[in-house]
Automatic annotation (TrEMBL):
InterPro entries: Aminotrans_3, Aminotrans_3_PPA_site, PyrdxlP-dep_Trfase, PyrdxlP-dep_Trfase_major, PyrdxlP-dep_Trfase_small
Protein name: Ethanolamine-phosphate phospho-lyase
Organism: Tetraodon nigroviridis
Pfam families: Aminotran_3
Keyword Mitochondrion found: yes
Recorded family membership: Belongs to the class-III pyridoxal-phosphate-dependent aminotransferase family.
Length: 458
């Protein structure tokens, strides 16, 4: 049906029937994507675009093995009960080994249904039942989901609200950003300095009679600007939080399942001596099919069970979703996508580092500061000393890349960080093409033509 409608007619119908707060990419000239395969997307005219954005299609758009698994399972509905028992068990079993030897106690899974927002909302419930406390510590610029409980802990969203509407039980710690943050790469111990900020928040909360239920953070901040915390940060935060009676929740929704290359889970970048109490996952788990999960220690899970309220989710653990989740894990292993993320990520970062030498607009692409594996950020700045964010320039780069059939987006508190989170089937040749086009755009953008273009579009 979508192919039969003219793009302008499609846009008109969207404006008429879709809520105005549902934003659209490239609003000045939207794309009409009608199909996708691997790391490529195709518009209604058959033009191919390289997708450098879509971390949801983890193993590639419309991967045939994943599609086949879902289709075959739908045909087996008469064996639903047997499939439910088998497939609910196998994804949980499959998830355990990559958590690491010291994380084997993270053994109990809740297949939480349609979205990662459900997973993070459930994680908060688990933490509060286990601790008997209510206060939550989150990171500045964090985003954890769209339901009310998660908007409260998502400064990326609630910064837009008046102070009076913010939840008094939510406390915001500085983002552990060693490029732009309060403590930077030249600090003698940035990990401790940022962790001490969390300790001080706990102390202030206690002075006001609060009690900490949880500290929640993405293992690498995504919407916050592709932030990689300094090693040792989470260990020290965990010690402060657990001493206060709280638990640590690692949000792996955007950065888990091998995206960082060297490890299956991004929290493992901190070292073997850090294991969260609760891990949440979603999006890539089903390669776009709605599937999410919460993994917790037996102690946390048993406390939740003892509250007397059973956990039920209409769609949680349904056989079709579970079959698709298993297929995603199988494809990752068969095609060595974690290894590919490591190899191509290193290649991509090298190429981008070379661009930094050519283009003053690029502030940082250090693998230690702005990404790992196929989770890479390119921060654009007007001045490398003051770090004045090049927000308008970043948007112009994105728009021009679209004209070159490269899809990229920007994020961070200033929307000046170009973010690479492509499907894990992204190749070295794709990286070559993307960086070639970035070079082309930045070369054409320096200096007068770019300034003129910005004034024309403002």
């Amino acid at each position: 049906m979508s192919e039969k409608l003219d793009k302008n007619r499609t846009i008109l119908l969207r404006k008429r029937h879709v809520g105005p707060s549902c934003k659209i990419f490239f609003s000045h000239d939207p794309l009409k994507i009608v199909k996708a395969k691997g790391q490529y997307m195709y518009d209604e005219k058959g033009q191919r675009y390289l997708d450098c954005i879509n971390n949801v299609a983890h193993v590639g758009h419309c991967h045939p093995d994943v599609v086949k698994a879902g289709a075959e399972q739908q045909l087996r509905v008469r064996w639903w009960a047997r499939a439910r028992r088998r497939n609910q068990r196998e994804p949980a079993d499959s998830l355990k080994p990559p958590l690491g030897k010291k994380a084997t106690f993270l053994a109990l899974c809740y297949l939480s249904g349609l979205s990662y927002s459900e997973a993070n909302d459930l994680a908060l419930r688990l933490a509060r039942h286990f601790t008997g406390h209510r206060d939550v510590i989150t990171l500045d610029n964090a985003y954890h989901g769209h339901v009310s409980s998660l908007i409260d802990i998502s400064p990326y969203k609630h910064h837009q609200l008046p102070d009076a509407e913010r939840n008094p039980y939510v406390h915001v710690a500085p983002s552990p950003d060693v490029y732009r943050g309060k403590y930077r790469a030249d600090h003698p111990d940035a990990a401790t300095a940022y962790a001490d900020e969390v300790r001080d928040i706990i102390d202030r909360a206690h002075e006001r009679g609060g009690k900490i239920a949880a500290f929640i953070a993405e293992s690498l901040q995504s919407c916050g600007g592709q932030v990689v915390p300094p090693v040792g940060y989470f260990q020290q935060v965990a010690a402060h939080v657990r001493r206060a009676g709280g638990v640590v929740i690692a949000d792996e929704v955007q950065v888990g399942f091998g995206r960082v290359g060297s490890h299956f889970w991004a929290f493992q970048l901190q070292g073997d001596d850090f294991v969260p109490d609760i891990v949440t996952m979603g999006k890539p788990m089903g390669n776009g099919h709605p599937l999410s999960c919460v993994v917790a220690t037996p102690e946390v899970a048993e406390a939740f069970a003892s509250c007397g309220m059973e956990y039920f989710n209409t769609f949680g653990g349904n056989p079709v979703s579970c079959a698709i989740g298993l297929a995603v894990l199988d494809v990752m292993e068969k095609e060595d996508l974690q290894g590919n993320a490591a190899r191509v990520g290193r290649h991509l970062t090298r190429l981008l580092a070379e661009q930094k030498q050519k283009h003053p607009l690029i502030g940082d692409v250090s693998v230690l500061l702005k990404g790992r594996g196929l989770f890479v950020g390119v921060e654009l700045v007007k001045d490398r000393v003051t770090l004045a964010p090049a927000t308008a320039e970043a948007q112009e780069v994105i728009n021009r890349l679209k004209e070159e059939k490269i899809l990229l987006s920007a994020d961070g508190p200033h929307r000046n960080v170009l973010k690479f989170k492509p499907p894990l089937c992204f190749t070295a040749q794709d990286a070559d093409l993307a960086v070639e086009k970035i070079d082309l755009v930045l070369t054409g953008a320096s200096p007068a033509p770019f300034a003129q273009s910005l004034s024309d579009t403002s």
